[in-house]
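Order emerges. For instance:

***
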Amino acid sequence: MKTSMSLETALDTARAIENRAVDYIAPVGRLSMQHHFEPANYPHGRTGYHPDDSATFPVLQLDAPNGEINGELTDSAFSQLCSHLMIPHQYAARLRDNAIPAEVGEEWELNTGRGMVTKLSREAYPKATPLLAAMVNHALSHGDQNGYRMLRGLLPVGKGTQQWRAILSNQYLPIPSVSVLDQAMMHCNKIRAATGNEAVLKSADVSEDRLYAKFIFPGMVSRALKTKRVGDIVNIGFVLFNNEIGSGRYGVRGFAEFLACTNGIILPKWGSGISKVHRTGRIEMDGDIVVSSSTRRAQIAAALAELGDMIDTVTAPERLENLSRVIEHAAEAPEVKTERALHAVQRIAKTELLTEAESKAVYEAFLRGNDLGQFGMSQAICSHDVANVLSFDRATHLETVAGKVLTMPRGDWSRLALAA
């Protein structure tokens, strides 16, 4: 299991992000792209950007009642804006990043979306950023001027420009990660008061985009399991997750830690019905921009209140015995022949979109584990040696893949093992 933040650090980080967060529900007609601002915080790592270039960089401007609000677009927000306006993202990104395609000559046609085609030359390329603004503003002016979008912003740390981290439907329910974490801890404190069983954070990571926190209950431990590892036992717990930029859900899934090796595994089948999209009823408005809403706050409070029920569901006592039976059932599954092990890993990697490096690490862990069966494959995928060299997001993804393999029906595993 990959470790990252302590509970205190995770809470402090999530709270600092929420203190910088600003949300607006704004009419599309009040949005425009501008290109006359100095690139104070522009990410210099982007391909083709030169800090000494006189060309300016694009910002999205909101014409608010109390003045103009300008913000840089994160990659996610830029992609969401292009998707909403039906602008080809690849071309727009080239203009934004000042990256002239190497495969073109001195001039090429640029399909800028909504029926617009522009010829762009290398000599004219310093004007590429204004061209991007013109393209976006054309699409904005020909769209639904009375439609509303939610703009999720972050105030700068110190000096700098505000950042737009997401541009979403006004149906989006903005649930702060710090509130998700606080609510979960409040419920865990209730469990401790009622049963004496205290939740322990094993691994967590918080960013401006998302939250992961993995807890186990040391008092909820299995009997000795019948696997190839003598004395194998597991603790049961839960994974708390949230996404703040519209690219994921919020909720709780079952989690288990194998005490013999500290491997962590996420149980996706137990997550059915306990992960939700950030969506509520559309709020229709007339007139000026609405920055906050008591209705939205009530909806967020109701969504957070469900987290306690989710935690109780995935950590119910019967889940522990069910998990024990699942593990022992997987441990009895037929093994893959050694010469076919690589093919078996590659089939899983293709289905679950693992990288070549991840596949190689899993294959090596699979061979080292001295168990070429279904249980051994799941343990190889979530092994510490594999997780330790991955990002937190990818390590968490592989823990979910391990859970899928562990709970795979016997027939599916047998076909995988024999086909390999």
Observations:
- The chain has a mean pLDDT of 83.
